[in-house]
Amino acid sequence: MRQMKFLLLFLFWGGVSVSAAETDSDTPAPSADETAIRAAINSYKTAFDKGDAKGVAAHWTPTGEFVTPAGETLTGHDALEKSFTEYFKTTPDVKMELDSVGIQFISPGVAVEEGVARVLIPGQEPEVTEYSAVHVKTPAGWKLDSVKETEVVVPHSHYEQLKPLEWMIGTWVDASDESTVETICRWTKNKNFITRSFKVHIEDRVEMEGTQVIGWDPDKQTIRSWLFDSEGGFGVGMWTQKENQWTIRTLQVLANGEKASGINIMTKVDENKFTFRSLGREVDGILLPGIDEITVVRQP
């Protein structure tokens, strides 16, 4: 049992599970009104991307109000058209992207849209704002009655450094005759860290659980991982990459105070397959057998 648990821990400290189980969620179909609102949103974006100030303004009600990120309030078609005409003249070829668009109905004729708008200006950093828009149902279709934008300070992110590990995101299951390991791997906010929560099932009980955090160390200029298990053990890993192969050097302190170390090698074959092996495994100076290369396959 002790040897088998060491094997499980080395697999975790190396950031590896043995197979993936993907889950599907049932999403209800949008209502006819929500579909109409989303069509109006796409129409607004098309007019904006074309630099069509009149077309943009037409998406508001006659008394519609737009509060800009600078705090200026524009009311009515004429004011909106004039403002957008000047904006498109001084900012040619500007485009818009919308993210995290959510729609909530307040009543059958009123809905609130919330999301993030990213304005792309050639040669400049994107301008990012959070916005809230009130849509009202009129005889001419769904129109904007109020829009308020707020500037967003874009936080620093180490996503680019961690992007090569993005394929790990998801729910994973490693099942064998002796045990089953369930792992959920997800991004934290701003994609600065990847977290992996795991449970080790042996027969009908949870033998161990814990959390691993994988992140970029800007001081050492490398990917590192930290792991904490329910038995009181903890460990760190230093990750290096050469093409599609990762080498993870691990150091751990077990719950009883023993110190363990090892070198795990993970080679990505494709998006659905990789190989794993471990060598140089020691616990308090006692050399343990290495783990021969295994092939890891994602389950459909």
UniProtKB/TrEMBL annotation:
Residue span(s) of domain DUF4440: 37-144
Position of the signal peptide: 1-20
InterPro entries the record matches: DUF4440, NTF2-like_dom_sf, Steroid_delta5-4_isomerase
Pfam families assigned to the protein according to its UniProt record, in alphabetical order: DUF4440 (PF14534)
Gene3D superfamilies: 3.10.450.50
Superkingdom of origin organism: Bacteria
Official protein name in the record: SnoaL-like domain protein
Source organism per UniProt: Gimesia algae
Taxonomic classification: Bacteria, Pseudomonadati, Planctomycetota, Planctomycetia, Planctomycetales
